[in-house]
Design brief:
Blueprint (H helix, E strand, L loop, with lengths): L8 H10 L12 H18 L14 H31 L8 H23 L6 H20 L5 H11 L4 E4 L5 E7 L5 E3 L4 H7 L3 H18 L3 H11 L13 H19 L7 H21 L3 H4 L4
Antiparallel strand pairs: 1-2, 2-3
Helix pairs in contact: 1-2, 3-4, 3-10, 3-11, 4-5, 4-10, 5-7, 5-8, 5-10, 7-8, 10-11
Length: 311
Amino acid sequence: MGAVHNIREELIFSYERTGLLIAHDAEVASKSEKKEVYDAIEEYFLLKENFPDPFFVFTYLNSPQYEAYKIIKEIIKEISIVCNLSIDYTVKSIKIEDQFDGKIYILSSLRSALQSIEFISYNINDIYSDECLIIARSIIEHYIRTKSVRLGKLDPKVVLYQALASRGVLEYAVRPNGKIDYNKIIAEDGKIVDISYTYGALAKATNDPIDTFIYEHIYKTLSYFVHRDASDRIISALKEQNLRMVLHDVEDDEISGTYICAKIIFYYLLEFLQNDWLDKKTVKDLTRKIIQLATRLDALETNPKIAELSF
């Protein structure tokens, strides 16, 4: 965890344990309060003799799992750096056939996914919020779309036309009743082109059971965080018998949230590496990070609570 604003780690540990931060010569503190603080400081040093980071005791992880969790946060930060450097090599090394070349979309999608990864990295390494899960949901969308493009299950032309229509470059078709049909556009040659698709249909079309699972269970679960409303807080408040919780969001679980984000990033990068037109340096750099991430995810999944979330 390290010192915060030059406050010694044992004092931070003591504060986490007791809720008290007492100066050595404080006269207002009672003997019992001082003893409570000193006992917590002693506990810190006893733990420090046997474990790298005593702060694991404030989580549901054991020491090795806690170390894996901390390293995962660092790896995600490194991934965003490595990807930004590696993508330049790839862009310079590939040949684009035409405007409907799937490589354009896959690389463009990587750029967008990297922005999401950077957001997640910043938040899990600073003050965590479950907005990370909302952002991770968008990475699943990138994962399903790019895999579908690579496998030929989604026409890059549909992706391009959808983007052009959303920016007003192409017009949407009009239904017989005069309403705009956002599932169809008018192409350059005047023909009507269907640009509709669903993530559920794309996930099934890849014929990979993990994709169906990710969409049906992970994606839909994360949709809750996107559409969280007052009713969720009311239900949570009733369960906790604390009606003041209605004024706040449901408490975030930083560990499980970080795990879910990391696992989604892991699957996305694995998929990106399936493209045989990537240059060797990009493959080498990303593969190294994926292996590092996979090792720590495996360690974290030895925890029963995380194992329940694993996918």
